[in-house]
Amino acid sequence: MTNTDQPTDQAGLRPTKQRLAVASALAETEGFQSAQEIHDLLGRRGDSVGLATVYRTLQRLAEAGDVDMMRTEDGEAIYRRCSDSHHHHLVCRTCGRTVEVEGPAVERWTSAMAAEHGYADVSHTLEIFGTCRDCQ
Amino acid sequence: MTNTDQPTDQAGLRPTKQRLAVASALAETEGFQSAQEIHDLLGRRGDSVGLATVYRTLQRLAEAGDVDMMRTEDGEAIYRRCSDSHHHHLVCRTCGRTVEVEGPAVERWTSAMAAEHGYADVSHTLEIFGTCRDCQ
DNA sequence: CCATGTTTGACAACGATTCTCATTGCGAGT
DNA sequence: ACTCGCAATGAGAATCGTTGTCAAACATGG
Ligand SMILES: [Zn+2]
Ligand SMILES: [Zn+2]
Ligand SMILES: [Zn+2]
Ligand SMILES: [Zn+2]
Questions:
Q1: Is residue A124 within 8 Å of A110, Cβ to Cβ?
Q2: Binding positions for Fe cation (chains A, B) (predicted)?
Q3: What is the pLDDT of residues A100-123, one digit of tens each?
Q4: H helical segments located in chain B
């Protein structure tokens, strides 16, 4: 289901069967998934794709900003499709439900802090964790 | 030098020679270090401590909140002694120089976002990266 | 169809972290 | 000080996510 007829803008990469498969796996899943989970999902679904290819594709997508990459508590990389504007995540510690949040407040604060200490070319990472309504 | 005569509050853990060695390695270093770097440092210095022990000790200290743990871009865990109050880090992408920053603004913002979406029991992680004055 | 640069996949190689388990060292109680 | 019980250690093996290798399969422009 949920065909990916749209171009999916893969930033100058060939739209190969494998890359489309990974893209669709991301498209039809709401939360964050590890490369291996995506690999398993594709295998189970029939569109088998090599594990190395899944890793490569996810890296490319993350670099291009087409997906968000964050790390679990134990360092594993997990990915999720997301809007292309800068934003942060509010993640449920129990079920993983994720909400994208944004606002000028943090952006301003981080810039101010950096400027105050003479740091240039600033970026930041911010993740909020909590227990969502359904899991309380 | 810089003896660690203070109790170093190891949260109910036996103050063994090894744990004290790790604590002192953290005490005399300013920036973030990986477990392996600490292990090497101790070896070079004579207070040889098993690698597994270094890992175990750092985990305990991190859980107890006596040191900060964050992850490098590629998922490696790095540790640094730090003040015990809640704060965030402003890290130089080039030389690693780190400044601890804090302020009620972000704390309020994250709480507000979480509340707005019905998330309870909230915590967050925030790291700011930039290029420090000396590295520009 | 052909030449040429991409992409893929099976598998090996890596590197950080964790596990195993026999040995050692505290430390409370005597 | 002596002893018992259990926490702590260390050497090495084992995990496991991730990356490297490289020959074979492909996509694309001419
Ligand atoms: Zn996102
Ligand atoms: Zn939840
Ligand atoms: Zn610097
Ligand atoms: Zn904070």
A1: yes
A2: 86, 107, 124
A3: 998 899 999 999 999 999 999 999
A4: 17-27, 35-45, 51-63, 104-116
Residue with tokens 């175990």: B56
* Structural domains of chain B sorted by starting position, each given as residue range(s) with its CATH number in brackets: 1-82 (1.10.10.10), 84-136 (3.30.1490.190)
User: Model-level pTM?
Assistant: 0.80
Q: Distances from the Cα of B87 to the Cαs of B15, B84, B100, in angstroms?
A: 27, 9, 6
Of chain B residues 70-89, which have a CB less than 8 A from chain A? 71, 75-77
B35-45 and B51-63 helices cross at what angle (nearest 10)?
A: 120
Report how far apart, in Å, the C-alpha atoms of A79 and of each of A26, A27, A39, A113, B109 are: 8, 11, 12, 29, 25
List phi, psi (to 5°) of A49.
-135, 140
In angstroms, the CA A101 to CA B125 distance is: 14
CA distance A34 to A75: 11
* CA–CA distance, B99 with B92 (Å, rounded to integer): 9
Q: Is the CB of B77 under 7 A from strand C?
A: yes
Cα separation, A43 vs A53, whole angstroms? 13
| Local confidence band at B65 (pLDDT 50, 70, 90 cut-offs) | confident
pLDDT less than 70: residues of chain A: 1-12
* CB-strand contact A131/D, under 7 Å: no
Contact between A100 and A87 under an 8 Å Cβ cutoff? The reply is yes
First to last CA, chain B: 33
